[in-house]
Amino acid sequence: MLNRVGRRRDHLSTVCAPVLPGCEPYQGGNGPLGALVLHGFTGGPPAVRPWADHLEREGFRVVVPRLPGHGTTWQELNQTRWEDWYAEAESSFDELSAQCEQTFVCGLSMGGGLALLLAARRREYVAGLSLVNPSVHSADPRMHALFVIRHAVPSLAAIGGDIAKPDVDEGAYPRTPLHAAWSMTKLWAEIHRELPRVDAPTRIYRSKVDHVVDPSSLALIRERVRSTDLEVIELERSYHVATLDYDADLIFSCTSEFFAGLAAAAK
């Protein structure tokens, strides 16, 4: 699997754009419990860094990777594919897991989809999942046209910044790169095949108003995962990027309590 993923990297440009300030990957903490925290499509570490900071304060060892093509320019993201994003998530998880007694995974949006794929492929090592508005599907028929549209135009209007709280910026790209967006649909197809292997305890935080991810993602997850411990928590006040919105503190505190409870029960 790793070799297959690695072979995809030959399409990447040898010249990379500078990483934007604040979008650097992060590692912190030294506790026995680990938490990998994954950001979403066109976003970056700033969207989930407060989540990781809370977990670190609660005693977790945390890792926030910068997924390839993110935190630089949308043009660079257009040169990457889902295999690159997953390879970064997987290698970060494996390194963290090697240092911890138990390792958990958090994910926002596409990061939630990557977390589910990790839970399928590393099922014996993923101790639990905390997902915020996970993206694994879209009911928008325009997504099916990306295969053709991406050859005509490189990008469309931005999908980032869906936050109810005023004056909060997640630092997402001003455009949506279509080659990368098309590849994300291929990631979804891979996740769909693997969802029946997911049996890790899972908490999903779903915003009642989400202008990015429609309800079909949650419906598919509920239908296919095998976890006997799956709970969906409704967020009343937040939009898609809930980790920076009004319900952020609820997400953070519930995540740390959930993970700590699972760790204690496993002893």
Order of helices and strands: HEEHEHHEHEHEEHEHEH
User: What share of residues is helical?
Assistant: 25-40%
Q: Note the overall shape.
A: globular
> What amount of the residues lies in strands?
15-25%
Gyration radius from CA atoms, angstroms: 17 Å
Going by helix content, strand content and strand pairing, the class is: alpha/beta
Query: How many helices in DSSP terms?
Result: 9
For the sheet with most strands, the description reads: 7 strands, mixed
Structure description:
With 267 residues, the chain is an alpha/beta fold. It is 36% helix and 17% strand. The protein has a seven-stranded mixed β-sheet with strand order 1-3-2-4-5-8-9, sandwiched between helices. It has a two-stranded antiparallel ribbon with strand order 6-7. Helix 2 links the parallel strand 2 and strand 3. Helix 2 crosses helix 9 and helix 5 runs parallel beside helix 7. The longest helix has 19 residues. The protein is globular. The N terminus is likely disordered.
Summed up:
The chain is an alpha/beta fold and 267 residues long.
Keywords:
single chain; 267 residues; alpha/beta; seven-stranded mixed β-sheet; two-stranded antiparallel ribbon; 9 strands; globular
Q: What is the secondary structure topology, with strand pairs?
A:
Layout: H1 2-7, E1 26-28, E2 33-38, H2 49-57, E3 61-64, H3 74-77, H4 82-97, E4 102-108, H5 110-121, E5 126-132, H6 146-149, E6 155-157, E7 175-177, H7 178-194, E8 202-207, H8 216-224, E9 230-235, H9 248-266
Parallel strand pairs: 2-3, 2-4, 4-5, 5-8, 8-9
Antiparallel strand pairs: 1-3, 6-7
Helix pairs in contact: 2-9, 4-5, 5-7
